[in-house]
Design brief:
heterodimer, A: alpha/beta, Rossmann fold, globular, B: mainly alpha, MetI-like fold, 13 helices
Chain lengths: 240, 265
C-alpha cells in the first residue's frame, strides 16, 4: 500500500513545494514552526486547496491538477488526527469513534457501529472509556480515542499532527510506546508530523525535513545524522 | 486603609443604586396589581387577541431569523475577508438604530411610494399595516441579537474538529448539522432567546410600519400603549404578563441543566 504526493501552494509570503512518498511504514515530517508541515497534512486530507497537486494513495488518484481530479474530503479515506485531537465534545467516546461508520455511503446500523468501535477501543486498551464524555478524558486517553476514531474508517493514509506534543513527559513516553506497539499492526501508511527526534526513533522508518516550504533532506534517521543538510537537521538529530 | 475603604463604599453604593434602578420599577409594577386585577385584565377581549398575535408573530419572526440568520452567522464566523467585516457591522446596525427609525426605513422600503412597494403592488402584495409587517419589523430589530450570538458561538467550533468530521465521511452540510450546531447549541439557544424576547417587546418600528389595529397588528406592547390611555390597571396587567414571559426566558437560560453545563464547558 504505497502513496505519493506532489504539492505546490503559494500564499502571500509563503510558498510550499514538496514531493513526498511512502509505503506501509511511517514517514516523519519534521521542520521548524511555519515550515508548512500542518498545511501538507491538510492538503493531503483535502481541507486546503493547493495551487497544484498530484496525490495518489493506494493506487487511487485523489487529487490531480493535470487530470482535473479533486476527490472531496469525505471520500478520500484519510485518517486525520489534528494537534488538539479535534474530538467531538458533545459526543461520548464510543460515539466519537463510531462517527465514521455513521456517514454515507459506509453507514452501519447503530448496534454494528458501536460493536466495531468498541472492538477498536479494546484493541487500543481503552475499552473502559466507551461511555465517558471526551471532556473528562486525560490527554493520553484523548490521544488514543482520536487514533481509534481515525482508524475506524480503515484509512488509506493516516495523518498524525504532533500527536504527542500536548502531553506531559510521562504520558508522552507511555503514548509513544503505545503508538510504536500499535501502529505497525494496523498496516497503514502514515505521515507523522513531529518536533521530537524520540518520536522518529520510536515510530518512523523515513524522515522528510521541511524548511520554509521546501524539502531540504530526506532519508533514515541514521542518514540524516551522518550528513545533516542544514543547521536545523543537525540540531534535530542531535549531531551537534 | 481609609481611602480604599471609602472607595469600596462609594463603589458599593453606586452598584446598589444601579440594581435598584433595574429592580424597583419591576417590583412597583408587581405591587400595583391585585390577583383580581390580573384575572380581570386577562379576561379583557383585547388581551387574548394581542397575546395571540404576539405569540404567533414572534414565533414566525424567530423562525425566519433562525432560517436566514444561522447560515449568515456561520459565514461570518468562518470568513476572514473584508466583506465579512463590513457585513458584520451592517448586521449590528439595527441594534444601535432607534426602532422608530427602523419603522420609517421599512415604510420607505415596502410602503406604496417606497423602494420595493410599487413592484410588490404589481403582484398584488401590500406589506405595511398587516401582520406580515409586524413580523418584518420584529425580524429586523431582533435578528441581529441572534446573528451576533450565533456567530460568536460558531467561532468556538474548532476548524480541525470540522476537518476531522469531513475526513470521517460527513458532507459539508452533515458536518455543520452534526458537529458545528451541537457544539454551538448553548450560544444559539441564548441568541434565539434574546431575539425572541426583543421581538416580543418590539414597539416603535411596529407602530410606525404595521400600525395599531386590534386583532390585526396590535401586539402586546401596543395593547399596553392603548390601554394606558383608558385604563391604567389594564396596562399594568398586560405589562406584568410580558414581564413574566421575559422572566421565564431568563430563568430558562440560567437554569436549564444541559444548557448551563454545556455553556460553562
Amino acid at each position: 500500500m504505497s502513496w505519493s504526493a506532489e504539492i505546490r501552494v503559494r500564499r502571500d509570503d509563503f510558498a510550499l513545494d514538496v514531493a513526498l512518498q511512502g509505503d506501509a511504514g511511517v514517514v516523519a515530517l519534521v521542520g521548524p514552526n511555519g515550515s508548512g508541515k500542518t498545511t501538507v497534512l491538510r492538503i493531503l486530507a483535502g481541507a486546503v486547496e493547493p495551487d497544484y497537486a498530484e496525490i495518489e494513495v493506494a493506487a487511487q488518484v485523489v487529487a490531480s491538477t493535470a487530470g482535473g481530479i479533486d476527490v472531496p474530503m469525505e471520500r478520500r479515506r484519510m485518517g486525520y488526527v489534528p494537534q488538539g485531537y479535534g474530538l467531538f465534545p458533545h459526543l461520548s467516546v464510543i460515539d466519537n469513534v463510531a462517527f465514521g461508520l455513521s456517514t454515507w455511503p459506509h453507514r452501519l446500523e447503530k448496534s454494528e457501529r458501536h460493536a466495531r468501535a468498541q472492538r477498536l477501543l479494546d484493541e487500543l486498551d481503552c475499552g473502559a472509556l466507551a461511555q465517558r464524555r471526551v471532556g473528562r478524558l486525560s490527554g493520553g486517553e484523548q490521544q488514543r480515542v482520536a487514533l481509534a476514531r481515525a482508524l475506524v474508517i480503515e484509512p488509506k493514509l493516516l495523518l498524525l499532527d504532533e500527536p504527542l506534543a500536548a502531553l506531559d513527559a510521562t504520558t508522552r513516553r507511555t503514548v509513544r510506546r503505545f503508538l510504536a506497539e500499535h501502529l505497525p499492526s494496523f498496516q497503514r501508511p502514515c505521515v507523522l508530523v513531529t518536533h521530537d527526534v524520540r518520536d522518529v526513533e520510536a515510530l518512523a522508518t523515513d524522515v522528510v525535513v521541511l524548511e520554509r516550504g521546501q524539502v531540504v533532506q530526506r532519508g533514515t534517521l541514521e542518514a540524516l545524522r551522518a550528513a545533516p543538510a542544514s543547521d536545523f537537521v543537525a540540531e534535530f538529530v542531535g549531531a551537534r | 486603609m481609609r481611602a480604599p475603604r471609602l472607595f469600596s463604599s462609594i463603589g458599593g453604593l453606586l452598584a446598589a443604586t444601579m440594581v435598584g434602578l433595574l429592580v424597583v420599577p419591576l417590583l412597583a409594577l408587581a405591587a400595583s396589581a391585585s390577583w383580581a386585577d390580573v384575572q380581570l385584565g386577562m379576561a379583557h377581549p383585547s388581551f387574548s387577541a394581542a397575546i395571540a398575535l404576539s405569540l404567533r408573530t414572534t414565533a414566525t419572526s424567530l423562525g425566519v431569523t433562525l432560517l436566514l440568520g444561522t447560515p449568515l452567522a456561520w459565514w461570518l464566523s468562518t470568513s476572514r475577508g473584508r466583506l465579512a467585516r463590513v457585513v458584520a457591522v451592517v448586521v449590528e446596525l439595527p441594534i444601535v438604530v432607534p426602532p422608530a427609525v427602523v419603522g420609517v426605513a421599512l415604510l420607505q422600503t415596502f410602503g406604496r411610494q417606497g423602494l420595493l412597494g410599487p413592484w410588490l403592488s404589481l403582484v398584488g402584495i401590500s406589506v405595511p399595516f398587516t401582520p406580515a409587517a409586524v413580523v418584518l419589523a420584529q425580524v429586523v430589530v431582533s435578528s441581529p441579537f441572534f446573528v451576533q450570538a450565533a456567530a460568536n458561538a460558531f467561532r468556538k467550533v474548532d476548524r480541525d474538529t470540522m476537518i476531522v468530521a469531513r475526513t470521517l465521511g460527513a458532507s459539508k452540510a452533515g458536518a455543520f448539522v452534526r458537529i458545528a450546531v451541537p457544539i454551538a447549541a448553548p450560544g444559539l439557544w441564548v441568541g434565539a432567546s434574546l431575539a425572541w424576547a426583543r421581538a416580543l417587546g418590539e414597539f416603535g418600528a411596529t407602530l410606525l410600519f404595521a400600525g395599531n389595529m386590534p386583532g390585526r397588528t396590535q401586539t402586546m406592547p401596543l395593547a399596553i400603549f392603548t390601554a394606558l390611555e383608558s385604563d391604567v390597571r389594564l396596562a399594568v396587567v398586560f405589562s406584568l404578563v410580558l414581564a413574566g414571559l421575559g422572566a421565564v426566558v431568563l430563568l430558562g437560560l440560567r437554569f436549564l441543566p444541559g444548557l448551563r453545563d454545556r455553556g460553562a464547558r
